[in-house]
Amino acid sequence: MKIFFITSNPGKVKEASSLLKPLGIEVEQLKFPYPEIQADSLEEVVEFGIRWLKDKVSKPFFIEDSGLFIEALEGFPGVYSAYVYRTIGLDGILKLMEGIENRRAYFKSVIGYYDGKVHIFVGKVYGKISHEKKGTQGFGYDPIFVPDGYDKTFAEMTTEEKNAISHRGKALKEFHRWLKENLK
Ligand SMILES: O=c1nc[nH]c2c1ncn2[C@H]1C[C@H](O)[C@@H](COP(=O)(O)OP(=O)(O)OP(=O)(O)O)O1
Ligand SMILES: [Mg+2]
């Protein structure tokens, strides 16, 4: 089965393909830019994106919005993670976190699948913001995020290792479970 993933982010496609391909689902990237509204939740961004895309894309597709939520910064950068990454980046976040003891943070992923109806799948992974950038794998904030139970950043993990515990891996597994039950 082939499913279209509308995203500009090759890192997301790599993770989605690596998790779904062994389950018989081929993920094909569709680089079809869509507006990402400045809402307060990832769910609102995804629901708006799907409403905007559904009459423009004829095949079943999914999109994903995700972000890093830092407790000591009241959830910042959260929904604005992409903009913050592009502007102040990892060094900017580490600077904001200088001298802050509470390093708790979580990544959240919201997948929206459209097959005539909207289906939402959510995943979260808790961890800490590191004191320095470590690792070269993954993408985005991976070099400064250490998931709970590990002593290395997401950027020091393989795609498979990250997928086993990440927010996106959890949301994709929910998505796959739904596909298995509903596409018999
Ligand atoms: O696993 C992750 N590891 C590190 N960083 C991550 C992750 N997941 C999201 N992030 C960061 C990257 C981006 O700065 C923002 C997501 O923004 P988000 O709009 O969902 O993604 P994007 O603009 O890169 O691709 P697109 O909107 O075309 O799907 O949070
Ligand atoms: Mg985006």
Automatic annotation (TrEMBL):
Cofactor: Mg(2+)
Cofactor note: Binds 1 Mg(2+) ion per subunit.
One Gene Ontology term, aspect cellular component: cytoplasm
Binding residues for Mg(2+): E36, D65
Highest taxon listed in the record's lineage: Archaea
Binding sites annotated in the UniProt record for substrate: T7, S8, N9, P10, G11, K12, S66, F139, G140, Y141, D142, K162, H167, R168
Catalysed transformations (reactions): ITP + H2O = IMP + diphosphate + H(+); dITP + H2O = dIMP + diphosphate + H(+); XTP + H2O = XMP + diphosphate + H(+)
Keyword terms, alphabetized: Hydrolase, Magnesium, Metal-binding, Nucleotide metabolism, Nucleotide-binding
NCBIfam families: PRK14821.1, RdgB/HAM1 family non-canonical purine NTP pyrophosphatase
Assembly mode: Homodimer.
UniProt protein name: dITP/XTP pyrophosphatase
Provenance organism: Thermococcus chitonophagus
